[in-house]
Amino acid sequence: MRSRKLTFTQLWLGAVAAFAVLLQPRAGHALVSPRTHAAAATLPRRRRPARATSEDDHDECVIIKFVTGNAMKLREVEEILGMNGLPLPLEMIDIDLDELQESQPEKIAAAKARLAAEACGGPAIVDDTSLCLNAIGGMPGPYIKWFQQSKVELHRLLTDYDDKSAFAQSCIAFSPGPGAVPLVFSGVCNGTIVSPRGGSGFGWDAVFQPEGSAETFAEMSGEAKNAISHRSRALALLAQHLKGDRDLLVDLCLEYATDPVFLEDRVHYRET
Ligand SMILES: *[C@@H]1O[C@H](CO)[C@@H](O)[C@H](O)[C@H]1NC(C)=O
């Protein structure tokens, strides 16, 4: 049981770390607060009972929630984590989290991961994806989700522009539990906006043709997309940080395990 004082200290450290994140240069780099970095590297390993070989035997009930309303995105994230040595079943949690009005996606993702961990009382991953069209000053960026919901035809936005270039950015934020400083990693994939082609994938995959490819994401197999995508780059950085070590990840989650605190005034549940 953690005391209130410690929780306050953690929040304060969190605020300091969040500030440190602000001061970091932008780009496809990992934004890792020093405290969490040190914690992950030096965490004392708990003595755990020998694990049964059964696949169903979840490590001490550590279940990581992935915040999304999109089952295909969830599956993609599981596949990518598996490719990177972290074969973890994630549990989908479809909740609306307060979103910062903010143009820096790393900060949006970090804030959402904090809220998600508090709401779940356990580890949570959020993915904040931006799609930035260079001809129109990087819009819609993090607002892509609302453009999609309004069925805006992205390729038509660029009709009057010669520059069809764009980049996709995924910010993955992982919180091992309530009160923890989230780890935030960003991955970028450059490409071009084209007329929709292909039937696989999801979201705007059909209008995004990544650099060096003749196919849109929606024309590619899942493996081909995951070899180059913004999301796989960001998740690979997270996996690297955790040394592709499933036990390290589980220990980190257990360190912050607590009872769920439902922040009903801040989080609206669509499903339970
Ligand atoms: C994307 O393009 C920008 C500039 O056009 C470049 O600086 C960056 O390295 C590229 N990133 C990737 C992942 O190709």
Automatic annotation (TrEMBL):
GO terms for cellular component: cytoplasm. Mg(2+) binds at E99, D128. ITP binds at residues 68-73, 112, 128-129, 202-205, 225, 230-231. It catalyses: dITP + H2O = dIMP + diphosphate + H(+); XTP + H2O = XMP + diphosphate + H(+); N(6)-hydroxy-dATP + H2O = N(6)-hydroxy-dAMP + diphosphate + H(+); ITP + H2O = IMP + diphosphate + H(+). Binds 1 divalent metal cation per subunit; can use either Mg(2+) or Mn(2+). Gene3D superfamilies: 3.90.950.10. InterPro entries: ITPase, ITPase-like_fam, RdgB/HAM1. One of its GO terms (biological process) is nucleotide metabolic process. It is an enzyme of class 3 (hydrolase). GO terms for molecular function: dITP diphosphatase activity; ITP diphosphatase activity; metal ion binding; nucleotide binding; XTP diphosphatase activity. Its cofactor is Mg(2+); Mn(2+). It comes from the Eukaryota. Its EC number is 3.6.1.66. Keywords: Cytoplasm, Hydrolase, Magnesium, Manganese, Metal-binding, Nucleotide metabolism, Nucleotide-binding, Signal. Its main location: cytoplasm. CDD domains: HAM1 (cd00515). Residues 1-30 form the signal peptide. PANTHER family: INOSINE TRIPHOSPHATE PYROPHOSPHATASE, INOSINE TRIPHOSPHATE PYROPHOSPHATASE/HAM1 PROTEIN. Pyrophosphatase that hydrolyzes the non-canonical purine nucleotides inosine triphosphate (ITP), deoxyinosine triphosphate (dITP) as well as 2'-deoxy-N-6-hydroxylaminopurine triphosphate (dHAPTP) and xanthosine 5'-triphosphate (XTP) to their respective monophosphate derivatives. The enzyme does not distinguish between the deoxy- and ribose forms. Probably excludes non-canonical purines from RNA and DNA precursor pools, thus preventing their incorporation into RNA and DNA and avoiding chromosomal lesions. Homodimer. Belongs to the HAM1 NTPase family. This is Inosine triphosphate pyrophosphatase. It comes from Pelagomonas calceolata. The lineage of its organism: Eukaryota, Sar, Stramenopiles, Ochrophyta, Pelagophyceae.
